[in-house]
User: Fold this.
Amino acid sequence: MSGDCERVLRSAMSRMDGEVPELGEAEESAHLAACPECRGEVAAMLAVGTAFEGRQREVPSQVAAWPEVSARLAEPPIRARFSVRHPVLLFGGFAGVLIACRLLEMAPGFEVSPLAKSLPILTAAMVVSLLGDNPFRIRMDLSA
Amino acid sequence: MHPSDDAAAIEECRNGNRNAFRLLVERYEREAMGHALAVLRHREDALDAVQEAFLDAFRALDSFDTRCRFYPWFYTILRHRCFKAQARRSRHESQDLPADRLLVAALGDVAARDSLESALASLSAEHREILMLRHLDALSYDELAARLEIPRGTVMSRLHHARRQLRQRLESVPRTGPLGKEKP
Assistant:
């Protein structure tokens, strides 16, 4: 697909969605007439638009969120065991532990115990637990 | 909607009147449920996310600019809650729960509705979300960019990919059948 095709598709999509297209209609039509691939793409976009035509979301007639929200608002605030206000400081501390461990390992004549060797992993586990989420997790669903 | 009523209710909340928040909850809960269902596809999960989002919104009311509309601001909070719930569900629970309906069927239109719903259900939550916001709520690219907190260019590319995938799924799903399982 050439740069021209991408521009034409962007423009056709904007036109279809009621936005300002970047190309004139004549320029778009001329390209579409000569490019079967773009014609197919535009037809597919239009077909999706048609599939949604006249559709509405299914919404429950009654939701009644207020009783639960109201009850939760009335609860006294729960004091968190640990409050992580500044994750940067937490990561800074983690980095400090890693550097300290490495320096200890490099110190001449210093015997590193197995417990000290596992300190970086224990600290990482503590950081993850304090943050309440794994910051290293890769979200596979953010593909687009 | 009544933005001035919203602003007045928010002012009252800020002045310590918790009950003023009821107006906002009752005004927007159905719309919020519709949006949460688009991401989560399960009514109980959606209701939990909506309730949590209202609580988050109440706690963050001080940061809300009353010159703006409430719901677009609330939507960004809601979608964070929805995607968090979805991530938790995909980590800890089976995805084989029966899904709730996403679209209303008109008379004699059930097969077409089911086919579109199956195709939507097989998309990623982000693709389903953007397609439904664009085609059912008729949001512009700028509104989508604000709601999804992404640049306009990303709105266009995400919408393009979502449409292409939906088209492929519409061609491959049977005209009638059970709701598809969420794609991991």
Q: What stands out?
A: Residues 87-106 of chain A form the longest helix (20 residues). Chain A has a mean pLDDT of 82. The two ends of chain A are 19 Å apart (CA to CA). Helices of chain A lie at 3-16, 25-34, 36-52, 66-74, 87-106, 114-117, 119-131.
